[in-house]
Amino acid sequence: MTAPASPTPSKPLSQDELKAQVGRAALAYVARGEIVGVGTGSTVNKFIDALATIKDEIKGAVSSSVASTERLRALGISVFDSNEVEELSVYIDGADEIDHRGFMVKGGGAALTREKIVAAQSRKFVCIADASKLVEVLGAFPLPVEVIPMAARRVMRQFAAMGGIAQVREKDGLPLVTDNGQHIVDVTGLKITDPLAFESTVSQWPGVVTVGVFAHQKADVCLLGTSEGVKTME
Ligand code: 5RP
């Protein structure tokens, strides 16, 4: 991916405005008459709102979470089960971190497993994010890993052996339960310099459902929201 050219200074936009900006920009990648893959999160919510303005021009969406499904349906967009659709031309989703090669950390919204599934069935991954998500090396954002609950402690020890500090994500004082009925372990203290190898290794640990490194399903295009406008990295 090529870094955006240096911008000319202008009035800073709020993070919410930056998200809305890239949400709207992503409409350019939606093939009219087709089904679009839709991710999860606050940036994607802006995209869903924008998608509603062209809902009569698309067949519908395959969604990566219960939350996105509810938002899509509330806005009158049909949602298809991923098994009903063989291939999608595009998947639009946010990221917690993205590097210059398009490798990402995802799963801050706990939807990483379904996100990876929909990304895998899509020909193009368009990442939408505000510019704060662009990093040199992945790992500053706590890495989400969806695990089968009985494997959580073992997986946490494996991360500790790599120098990471892992904890089970909680909601209202209890382990958070994902849309798939599993738990999330968040890992800090890692520098993920080889995302492809890291993803392959951790994915093989018993009890790991999905690791939040998206290297094998990386972004083909990234639309970065900045106060100077949307920068496209591809
Ligand atoms: C959800 C995700 C989101 O794409 C990621 O957390 C970014 O979210 P936001 O747009 O709210 O910053 O991976 O599982």
UniProtKB/TrEMBL annotation:
Reactions it catalyzes: aldehydo-D-ribose 5-phosphate = D-ribulose 5-phosphate
Cellular component GO terms, alphabetical: cytosol
Coiled-coil annotated spans: none
InterPro entries: NagB/RpiA_transferase-like, Ribose5P_isomerase_typA_subgr, Ribose5P_isomerase_type_A
Protein keywords: Isomerase
Gene3D superfamilies with a match to the protein in the record: 3.30.70.260, 3.40.50.1360
GO terms under biological process: D-ribose metabolic process; pentose-phosphate shunt, non-oxidative branch
Functional description taken from the UniProt entry: Catalyzes the reversible conversion of ribose-5-phosphate to ribulose 5-phosphate.
PANTHER family per the UniProt record, alphabetical: RIBOSE-5-PHOSPHATE ISOMERASE
Protein name (database record): Ribose-5-phosphate isomerase A
Provenance organism: Variovorax gossypii
Name of encoding gene: rpiA
